[in-house]
Amino acid sequence: MKRFRLSRIRPLFAGAAASLVGALLLFFTGGAALETQREQFFDSLTQWLPAPQSAEIVVIDVDRKAMQQAPDQSWGRLETADLLSRLSKAGAKAAAVDFIFSTACDPADPANIALTQAISGLPVILGFLIADGGPEHPGPVPPVAVRKPVSIPDLWFINGAEASCTFLQTASRSAAAAFLVGDEDARIRRVQAFSIIGNDAYPALGLEAARLAAGGHTPILGGEPAWLKLESRLIELDADGSLRFAASPSATITARTVSAGDVLSGAVAGDHFKDKTVLIGSSLPHLGGLRSTASMPLEPSVQIHADIANAVLTGFIPQRHATLPLFEAALALTGGLLVAFVATRLRPVTSVALGVLAISATIGAAAAIYAASALLVDAVGISLVLMFVLIVTSTLQFARVRRAESTARSKFSQYLPQSVVARYIDNPDDDRVAGEERPVTALFTDIEGFSTLSQKLAPRDLVTLLDIYYAEVNGLVAQYGGMVDKVVGDAVHAFFNAPEDLHDHINKAIECAGAIRALTEEMRRRPGFAEHQFGRTRIGIETGIAVLGEVGAGGKLDYTAHGDCINLAARLQEANKFLGTAICIGPQAAVESGRMLRSLGMHDIRGFGEMELFTSEM
Question: Which helix (H) or strand (E) holds 177?
Fold first, then answer.
């Protein structure tokens, strides 16, 4: 059974498979698994690109200034009545009140009388809160037409409500749901479009405010899933019947908001409210609800209702269409395939940079789509798929490159010094190595009677013996710090003190020669070698100045050394034939080694003349 190796997996195929798996996971499980991260991204998106603002919406805040100006520094029904009366005189189109007047319901109370008269003088929407088994249905019930088929979400049905006093409801134009239900993280991102009590359907406060601002026509509810048509605007709701909105940033909230104290003191001109729909609430904790939204951790509920009304009036409603998951999965698959293709053809660092660029482009595209159409594209899920593909592909590509690099180091180190191979692989942009003069000790070997042996043996058998021979001899050269320059036929050419410095390189070469002689004599007694009468190994050694570097042209280079000492070492290896020795050492190496060597006398060496030769054999 073959051992599994990560580097043998094709990165492109693995990247394609990862793209497909990631796209399927995104389509089938991404909705639930990534809901929190996706919603947080959508929150950021709505803040990066603020929604357009309707000029028809104004918010009056019963803030600290208003409280300080009120009698006894307390805001009550008389102050609210005064505020509504001023809005009526100013020509406001409608007012949505985010206060619930559910207690102190004595119709003879002067404050209640004043508030009832003020509500009667202006189209006023009174909000109500959800209550389990409330005593009455709020009223008046706003009009709504139903076009079948229609799917009514289960979340719309509630058991009861906490509403304002009956006489106040009677004086108002309509009742609407003012309660807000947050997501799992308690953040308000959407509102339940309608609440149904018995057979009556009540819109959200912001939705009803937008209806009156748009002319007060009857909306049409229909579709599966449900949609709402308000005049010419078709509002698509989420699958659970909720209406998303973009929380306005602080600057927008400040621009559309006036203090109730300024209105009552006359600091705000009356024409500021002419033909406007006004939402009244409070940013004070004991008067208004403060809820977490994308724009701030504690946003007054009246501002949230204003954002909902603004979304309906401008038509800019953040939406997740039912077809988006399929589109996102297809986009993730396509992007993943592209990332996998690129990652297998570029360096890992470049691939990572392009992967980051692809994720940035995904986020940028999601932002552009949202700005143009208010569609919320899941850039988080798509980006995670791209990251997954990039990690899988890059990891396998890295493993493949490392395997190829390891193979290259191993193979080429048989032909070049390891330091040279490392330079080529680790610094591929470096220039070729120029010629370098340095002291070098050359060691040349040869197998006695090799020509006869090669004629007797079959090529396969000969190669088998040579593989063992070269592996062990070359291993000894490396063990003593030498470099195998090349293997030519039956000969090994090795250098010591090249290409890197080697202390006492002459004696290291002489010691290596002795070790090679001992090894090869033992090798000749082994089965396979003995039966074919494998010859002795003859060795020549000399030292001197040589020039090392890369030579060659036409795309083929060789790292080698040139000099008299190199040529003489080759001649000394041949001299062993007539000297009857296995190791022949030149005069320069003998002198510089400083060791006691046996003299072989004066001999004439072709091309070099007469010289004294030595051997380490005793």
Answer: strand 174-177
